[in-house]
Write a structure and sequence with these properties.
Length: 640
């Protein structure tokens, strides 16, 4: 396909769609490179609307890492809203990049980053709009190699028919290695065509090419085995890990959105990985080992990021930011540096302890205070032992009261519903906790002007976690418990008035469960949903449970399986899981033992502070967890 800009055809359509500015590109720090000078060209997609996808750190980092190379070009594309999709179809405008408005089909590689499985229908919409065959097997050398990344790529089997490859783990180095392979193959005159290129990628043992693996099934529907169908292809594909984050201080030049987006700030990832061992948390499990960014690099990134972007808000991100071994020095150093400035600093505050409040206070010294969210995740101490979230009721009340005493009038408490072994009582305990929090807060502050919001998410069992074998709660049970909880919160009118209640109903979680733990047979469901108009399934206003259940019945039942079979069924130890050939570094035996500990309500310590408990990750990578303290301090502000 010609790489010429489609903007002359797109522009007349834009006055007819909502938020047209999201499609025009040209943001501060965006790059438009010369097409002909590039040896390898990537189109990068976050499969959601611009307002969600533009701030995505993963895509921004890869965009910058690739564009820093002289002979490499990377542009971005996002999901288009249905109003523009209809017009693009009517006028023959293909899926385009926002940077130079080139057709996605003209690129060598089409990399799609999936933070969640609910973006799968948007992948199909984008492929179809791009005029790239949905079936990977139907593509030829004229089509881009479609590569999935992000956390959902740790089980890409449901989209195995639609992608050419998947990369597990960190992308910074992986995209450059893939680029080198594509560059060499093109320079060699494309020997062996697309098949040879995919084979070269698969031989690295770090790129998964689904077509080189056959899946056999047992008569009862379970998987019998997954085996390579080519001699040179590895039995297991390993995740990529960028060990030294100080060598990769990206984004250096953050993209500043033109249209409104969900986060408008400079985000610095202060460490990667987590060893707290929350059993529901896929991100914590698959990103081990812990790798801290040094205090010096964090300081430099903040300073440069603000200068290059003009953002006046900085987020210090990670899975549990208060766990950085030098977080106290990071916060006080940044608070000193930006005191009297209009820069607002924030830390995602999920750890339930008073130290978190102290850090938030330090960061709000310049008068700009961010919200506080604590995540006990489970309502009762029993269920918190099951999920390995070691927070006592006393800790929680003490922490929230400290926040109220520190001047916060409102905190958010995050919980999950539908957890393994959960009973009605475990969920009703959330109401009791919230009542106690308000009572203690009123007593400590002498004020009635305090509030908390109880926010509930639906639990979804994820691959590569100890809960990968668990049955998922059915939506009726989840919805019934959420209703009971609401009644319980309001059973005390005085306390209930101070408690906000936010929840999602149970149906989307079941579909996320299907897509998370599904195998290749689930691809037929995704295709059917997309054909029936499914798009933007992560948005409640676009999600249709009925569309998914109808598609699942039509596509799965002839194969002897069903939506319930994938979601509500507990797996046994010997079952071959669809992602067993994809290596996240965790020992399956350790995960099983942790699942058994969970059922026995036995907790597991954090290996950052206690001896290694042999999850398998560090020896597999010949490393150790990488934490400070380094003893270094933030460098003083550079005098310009
Ligand atoms: S191998 Fe040991 S030290 Fe490394 S993450 Fe696992 S438990 Fe922790």
């Amino acid at each position: 396909m010609s790489a010429a800009s489609v903007f002359p055809r797109l522009e007349p359509l834009l006055p007819r769609v909502s938020k047209p500015i999201q499609y025009v590109g040209g943001e501060l720090n965006a790059v438009a490179k010369d097409w002909d000078s590039a040896a390898v060209r990537w189109a990068l997609m976050y499969p959601d609307a611009y307002e969600v996808g533009q701030p995505n750190q993963g895509v921004q980092i890869l965009y910058e890492v690739l564009n820093e190379r002289d002979d490499v070009l990377a542009e971005r594309t996002y999901a288009v809203w249905p109003d523009l999709e209809a017009l693009m179809r009517e006028h023959g405008v293909p899926q385009f990049t926002v940077d130079a408005h080139r057709p996605v089909a003209a690129f060598d590689l089409f990399g799609v980053s999936f933070a969640t499985e609910m973006g799968y229908t948007n992948l199909l919409a984008a492929l179809d709009l791009a005029q790239i065959p949905l079936d990977a097997a139907a593509r030829d050398e004229s089509h881009p190699v479609v590569i999935a990344g992000g956390h959902a790529a740790f089980n890409p089997e449901p989209i195995a028919d639609f992608i050419d490859a998947a990369v597990l783990g960190d992308g910074e180095e992986a995209v450059l290695e893939i680029t080198d392979i594509v560059r060499a193959w093109k320079a060699d005159g494309r020997p062996g065509g697309r098949d040879e290129l995919l084979l070269r990628l698969a031989r690295t043992e770090a790129v998964y090419v689904p077509r080189f693996y056959d899946v056999d099934y047992l008569p009862d529907g379970r998987i019998q085995r997954v085996i390579p169908n080519r001699a040179e292809v590895p039995f297991r594909v390993h995740k990529r890990t960028t060990m030294d984050l100080d060598q990769w201080p990206y984004p250096k030049q953050p993209l500043v959105p033109l249209a409104e987006t969900v986060h408008e700030r400079y985000a610095v990832e202060i460490f990667r990985g987590c060893t707290r061992g929350c059993r529901f948390c896929q991100a914590g499990m698959i990103t081990r080992p812990v790798r801290e960014r040094s205090i010096t690099t964090i300081g430099d990134m903040v300073e440069r990021g603000i200068k290059e972007s003009g953002f006046n808000e900085v987020g210090l991100l990670s899975l549990s930011s208060a766990d950085h071994s030098e977080i106290g020095d990071v916060c006080s150093g940044l608070a000193d540096r930006y005191e009297g400035d209009n820069v607002s600093l924030s830390l995602p505050s999920t750890r339930v302890d008073a130290f978190n409040v102290t850090l938030a206070q330090e960061l709000s010294r310049n008068g700009r205070r961010s919200g506080l969210t604590f995540a006990p995740e489970g309502g009762s101490e029993r269920i918190r032992r099951v999920i390995n979230k070691m927070v006592s009721e006393e800790d929680l009340i003490r922490t929230v009261v400290t926040a109220y005493q520190g001047g916060w009038r409102q905190v958010k408490l995050y919980f999950m519903c539908g957890l393994p072994t959960e009973t009605d009582d475990d969920v009703l305990q959330i109401a009791r906790l919230a009542h106690e929090v308000i009572k203690a807060g009123r007593e400590a502050t002498g004020s009635k002007d305090i509030r908390c919001t109880v926010s509930i998410g639906g639990f979804v069992p994820k691959p590569h976690t100890p809960f990968q074998w668990a049955s998922q709660a059915d939506p009726e049970t989840v919805d019934r418990r959420l209703k009971l909880l609401k009644q319980e919160i309001n059973s005390n009118r005085s306390l209930g008035r101070a408690i906000g209640y936010r929840y999602h109903d149970g149906e989307p979680s079941v579909i996320e469960g299907l897509l998370s733990r599904g195998d290749r047979r689930v691809g037929a469901v995704i295709r059917r949903v997309w054909e029936q108009g499914g798009r933007f399934d992560g948005w409640s206003e676009h999600f249709s449970y009925r569309r998914w259940t109808d598609a699942a019945a039509e596509a799965l039942e002839p194969m002897g399986v069903s939506l319930a079979w994938y979601t509500l069924r507990e797996r046994d130890e010997n079952e071959v899981l669809p992602w067993d050939h994809l290596d996240s570094g965790l020992d399956k035996e350790w995960l099983w033992a942790d699942w058994q500990d969970s059922l026995s309500e036995v907790e597991q310590d954090d290996c950052r502070w206690t001896p290694c408990f042999d999850c398998g990750v560090c020896p597999g990578m010949d490393t150790e967890i990488q934490i400070g303290p380094t003893g270094r301090k933030l460098l003083p502000l550079t005098v310009v």
